[in-house]
Amino acid sequence: MTAPATTERRPAFALRVEGIKKRFDRNVALDGVSFEVPIGSIFGLLGPNGAGKTTLFSLAAGFLSADEGSIDILDTSVSRIADLQGRMTILPQDAAFQKNVPILDQLVFLRRLDGRDPAAAARDVEEALQKVGIAEYKKRGIHALSHGMLKRMGIAQAFLGEPELILLDEPTSGLDPQNARQIRDLILQLQRERNVTTVISSHNLAEIQELCDHVAILDKGRLKACGTVAAITRGGHMLELELRRPLHPDERAALTAVPGVARLVDRGPQRYRVEFALAEDQTADEVTIAALRQVLDLGLAPKLVREGDSLEETFLRMTADQRDAD
Fold first, then answer.
1. Going residue by residue through the chain (326 aa), what tens digit of pLDDT does each one get?
2. DSSP of 201-231
């Protein structure tokens, strides 16, 4: 008699945080935080400095222990963090690498900790360094790398192997706009290739809105909102557009002349934010339709359309009452 075939159960969530509390002396870093990160998402954890983001990452990585609550990663409690070896990686905000050890050797060592033999580990590392664009520096120490290149090395380390969950703490912190853009593009490229779950911590709300499909907003250790970016920002008075070419000055004037449009803000070479100033008899939907009609009349087919507030505006609105009361 043949035994029935068994199928491996897929985790319900990549990361589940339930009632997490963490205090440092009198400072409450996290106060009853609960949320879930869907499998396969790019999940943004955002908030101002001191919101509790890095503390939460440290708890998820097993660097700290919670005072109350629990964290499960891929249906495994972080109390058994060793069982997640090879399934989860983390890039701390200020990741430190050995100064006088060649980059290749450092990453090969990390890969061998996951059980790879020396030859396979070297192949994995060389492929990762090639993808992040620093393969030519593989036999040199980190002193040969700029700050942007060090961030690339950290990304290579985080995506090394076959992780199912990747935690990136402030991956573009301290970078100029061009290098930050390159790191964001690199994260998106690797995400598409690997189909992993990536959690990104940042206080850069515009960056999170661009990268992520889900988000949790923390402020003073408390969860203010959690869900899809679209759901959290829906209903605001704003329209994000990505066009196939930049707008000419006369086209910009035509778009800003639409009744209910207040101004046009450049968000990149072909990205624009259309901000509204609604009259009493107008709705956001009416202005959105009129603005999109004007874009189409100009012969432009948008590559991307996003309605609602920016995450920055949403965050400020969510935290305004609490800050005013403090």
1. 444 554 556 778 999 999 999 999 989 999 999 999 999 999 999 888 888 998 999 999 999 999 999 999 999 999 999 899 889 999 887 778 888 899 999 999 999 988 889 999 999 999 999 988 899 999 999 988 898 899 899 999 998 888 999 999 988 888 888 888 888 888 888 888 888 999 999 878 878 888 899 999 998 899 988 988 877 776 566 788 889 899 999 999 999 999 989 889 888 788 898 888 878 788 888 888 999 999 999 999 888 887 766 677 777 777 665 544 44
2. EES-HHHHHHH-SEEEEEETTEEEEEEEHHH
The residue count for the chain? 326
DSSP state of 287: H
Contacts of 29 (CB under 8 A, 6+ apart): 22, 23, 52, 55, 221
Contacts of 295 (CB under 8 A, 6+ apart): 241, 243, 255, 302
Contacts of 55 (CB under 8 A, 6+ apart): 22, 29, 30, 64
Which of 67, 75, 66, 8 shows the shortest CA–CA distance to 37? 75
- DSSP line for 122-134: HHHHHHHHHHHT-
The pTM of the full predicted model, rounded to 2 decimals, is: 0.73
